[in-house]
Amino acid sequence: MANFPTWTSTSTGSDVAATFSSRIQGKTVLIVGVSPNSLGEATAAAYAAHSPALLILASRSLSNAKAVAESISTHCKVECVPVDLSDYASVRDAASQIRSLTSHIDILINNAAVVKDEHTLSPTAQHELQLATTFLGPFLLTNLIMPLLLNSAQTNASESGIPTRIVNVTSAGHVLSPVRFSDPHFHRPLSDLPESEQPAAHLPASLLPGEGKTYAPFLAYGQSKTANILFSIALNKRLLEKGTRIASLAVHPGSVQTNLSRSLGPESRAMVEGTTKATGWMDMGQGSVGMLVAGLDPRLVEEVEAGKPKLSDGGKGVYLNGWRVHTEGLAKHAADEDAAERLWALAGRETGVKCDGLGSVVDIIDSQGQNEEVVGKESGLVSTVKEIKI
């Protein structure tokens, strides 16, 4: 294998893209969660500079996606797709539009996130907004467009390093909370939760729900970021172990000052600022390094393949802290293969689908017979599902 460089704290996403330029040229890249002054924008710019065939930018705000597209469209073809990840009908519409734009996707980056100080539920599904935006919506979207990733994997079969990638952006903040399987939307007090769903020990009171409350923004944030790591573990179990040549990795970009905290109140913002005093903030270029490495560096997939029999063993080959495959600091609850399987089942129930991670998505029909669109093929199911092929 080529003698690729070792990344450092001064490396930028542009450095990574330049190193792996040949793995970008002619490829189709989808970045979900793009706005000005964001990691999504920095990542898009790094990819755009190296002649991908198509760069698709998905954002809740179409104007935000277009603003980013205008700044990079001189380098490559760019398409913008609106999607509200907390609205699963919007996710389906976005998936349909993406399928109309291309027959394959080589690299998918699930970068969308939101942070809310107040307990906020999605308008339609009534799901906790951070979990819906950061994980549940991306879970549904990823499965709806999985046939495009599978097409890419077949096309790229002769290339080394498994170039077809799914990158789920997570955070070191995952240590704050496991997935609350019995109460994912924060309706119950901590005292009602089993020990396995309790937040990290010895957290300050400021991070826990206040008197008489059930919601704490940083616990909801931690849960959503844990979910993205477990999602990658569950995907790898279904994809790599089935020989599909698609690898999924979760990456903590580092401490990057973006617009993500705009919905936080002064006290919560001060808390975030306090956690970075020792290390300081990374700029967007530095923060995008891990996202580019996860999508491009062939050495990481060697790690995934080496750890394949026990992907949950410390998260080896799945979790990146910046540019490093990193187990130090990875919470045990985020490296649990059983929890990853429970999460897959929970996500299917919450988004109303049954999917195998291999291109089959079957809608679970409600009592009124609604939600009948299906992607892919599934057999042997009971009469509560209905299939429609694309």
Automatic annotation (TrEMBL):
One of its GO terms (molecular function) is oxidoreductase activity. Signal peptide: none annotated. It holds the Pfam family adh_short. It comes from the Eukaryota. The keyword Cell division does not apply. Keywords: NADP, Oxidoreductase. InterPro entries: NAD(P)-bd_dom_sf, SDR_fam. Belongs to the short-chain dehydrogenases/reductases (SDR) family. PANTHER family: RETINOL DEHYDROGENASE, RETINOL DEHYDROGENASE 11. This is Short-chain dehydrogenase TIC 32, chloroplastic. It comes from Cyphellophora attinorum. The lineage of its organism: Eukaryota, Fungi, Dikarya, Ascomycota, Pezizomycotina.
